[in-house]
Amino acid sequence: MTTSPLISEFDAQTGVATLTFNRPEVLNAISIPMAEAFLAAVRTLRSQPELRCIVLTGSGRAFMAGGDVASMTGTQEQKRDFINGLLVPLNEAILLLRSIDAPMVAAVRGPAAGAGLSLALMADIIVAEDRAKFLIAYNGIGAVPDCGCTWFLPHKTGATRATEMMMLGRQLTAEEAQSWGLITRVAPSDSYDEVLASTIKQVASGPTKAFGAFRQLVDQAGGRSLAEQLEAERQAFLKIAHTGDFGEGVSAFLAKRPATFSGQ
Q1: What architecture does CATH give domain 6-204?
Q2: Which of 16, 56, 173, 231 holds its CA 20 to 30 A away from the CA of 133?
Q3: CA dihedral defined by 36, 39, 40, 42, rounded to 10 degrees?
């Protein structure tokens, strides 16, 4: 029986979707079939109205070790075809994921290197086991970062630290990554599942559409003037004010009770 390179699961009761990179024998290195399966799963999730949270994780002892370097050989044409076979579907999947309102949580155990680092950084919240490692790794094979690393990493750490990670091959422990602003939470192995589940539950029960609007505002802030960002915030607030969750939030505030959001 052939094992799928990507496992996609959706819990209709909680609204949580889990996408698991599933090539543990090679630390979940991305192959073309995995990239294509990832895109297909994301397209399906995009049309799921009950979606409240997306969890990205990896099978076995790694989140993801990056692209399948063993396949990056051969003629120039073969290398070009392989790189495009990976990055065309991955890039589309990344853009689609960042356009979905549901927040993303990356559950990182072990190394997140190369494209694995990029895909982890794409998430809104990263929960790392204390043994996790974060490494750009492209300098080791004479390549350049992909999957949005040169956008996500400087946004989180600043250009100086991003350059250090790339040019000096700096590997970060989970604790260092947290101090640099890359990740949200770190937990030891014996409490990791509990911390991860608590984080997912908290995010999945929030105002989903407001979270999506917030992400879009943050993503676009760097290319706008202050005046443009103020106007974008105003327009986003007006749009979110028509949602059911906004009505519930205001009612709960006035009644001095916790809000119960539905994601609508």
Answers
A1: Alpha-Beta Complex (3.90)
A2: 16
A3: 160
SS3 (DSSP) at 1: coil
Superfamily name with CATH number, domain 208-255: Lyase 2-enoyl-coa Hydratase, Chain  A, domain 2 (1.10.12.10)
Alpha-carbon gap, residue 239 to 243, rounded angstroms: 8
- In angstroms, rounded to a whole number, what is the distance separating the alpha carbons of residues 30 and 89? 12
Per-residue model confidence as pLDDT tens digits over 56-96: 999 999 999 988 877 778 888 888 998 999 999 999 999 99
pLDDT in tens, 234-260: 999 999 999 999 999 999 999 999 999
Q: Determine contact, residues 159/137, Cβ cutoff 8 Å.
A: no
Distance, CA of 33 to CA of 3 (rounded, Å): 11
Report residue 39 CA to chain centroid gap.
14
Residue carrying structure tokens 């024998």: 25
